[in-house]
Amino acid sequence: MGQVTYVSFDGEETVVDVPNGDNLMQAAIDNGISGILGDCGGGCACATCHCIVDDAWAAKTGEPDEIELDMLDGVVDPKPNSRLSCQITMSDELEGLVIHLPESQF
Ligand code: FES
């Protein structure tokens, strides 16, 4: 279990306790976070769970794989740290993680 801060496009921060092993899309849905839709249920097939990992955390969340990169090609206004939140799995190393949510998903 660790805390993740979800930051909306207009700066509102929501801190959520995320169990280790859960993905950040599902944690957002479970906690009523606006800005993550998760239409495909975490199958890396919709890109409606786009998030931007805070610069300070980009190295710890790692790089997207080829399938995720293909899906990220289709998001509105991608950033260098863009990820699909369903593909980030909570772990002890990510305690305190901060991710930003794109305006296009609100
Ligand atoms: Fe569909 Fe993440 S929930 S790609």
Q: Which structural traits does this protein have?
A:
Ubiquitin-like (UB roll); five-stranded mixed β-sheet; binds FE2/S2 (inorganic) cluster; alpha+beta; globular; about 110 residues
Looking at the structure, the CATH topology is: Ubiquitin-like (UB roll)
Which ligands are bound? FE2/S2 (inorganic) cluster
Question: Total helix count?
Answer: 3
Architecture (CATH level 2) name: Roll
Widest sheet: strand order?
2-1-5-3-4
Query: Uncertain spans, ≥5 residues at pLDDT below 50?
Result: none
Short synopsis of the structure:
The chain has a single domain (2-100), classed as Ubiquitin-like (UB roll) (Roll), CATH 3.10.20.30. The protein has 3 helices and 5 strands; from the N terminus they run ββαβααββ.
Structure report:
This protein is of the alpha+beta class and 106 residues long. The chain has helices spanning 24-30, 58-61, 66-72; strands spanning 2-7, 13-18, 50-53, 82-84, 97-100. It has a 5-stranded mixed β-sheet with strand order 2-1-5-3-4. Bound molecules: FE2/S2 (inorganic) cluster.
Summarize the SSE layout with pairings:
Layout: E1 2-7, E2 13-18, H1 24-30, E3 50-53, H2 58-61, H3 66-72, E4 82-84, E5 97-100
Parallel strand pairs: 1-5
Antiparallel strand pairs: 1-2, 3-4, 3-5
The structure holds FE2/S2 (inorganic) cluster.
